Amino acid sequence: MDTEQYFFQDDGTIPNSVFPLIVYRAVFPDTGAIADSMEEEFAANNWKNSWRNGVYAYHHYHSNTHEVLGVYKGSATLQFGGEKGEKMNVRQGDVAVLPAGTGHKKIEASDDFGVIGAYPGGMDYDLMKGEDGERPGADENIAKVPFPDNDPVTGSKGGIIEFWK
User: Fold this and answer.
1) 3-state class (DSSP) for residue 53
2) Where is 141: in which H helix or E strand?
3) DSSP helix/strand/coil, 84
4) Among 37, 42, 53, 92, which residue's Cβ finds the most Cβ atoms within 10 Å?
5) Residue 161's pLDDT band (boundaries 50, 70, 90)?
6) DSSP at 148
7) How far is the C-alpha of 78 from the C-alpha of 82, rounded, in Å?
């Protein structure tokens, strides 16, 4: 499994995080039931409150929880980290683990693009867009987000357990 790390600075609008965005490449093979496999793996590692859909076409972040995004079909170009962040291609089987505060946006996607999102401990999420007045409240929320017990893919070893020290 290929694992990538990306660090993004606070750009004044999107706070991002001191922890890196983690991207696992081709971690879920196409078994015909890839969405179910992802959802089950995330839930087994206590990343719950899942949904299936896409990614908003505007910069946004969550100040009260971390998030996992698993691509279960299609492909897309997503931008992480806000306007000054990084555009990256993701495809079926890829998983991104976003620490609270990390900006993300869909730039373009295939017609069949689908992702599963989930949150550690089944947290509910807020939707922040980098608008005036969100901070410093969002920063205070981010500082209070608990460290997850498990990585959504690797469980109690590796992944964020190692990279988010």
Assistant:
1) strand
2) helix 137-144
3) coil
4) 42
5) very high
6) P
7) 11
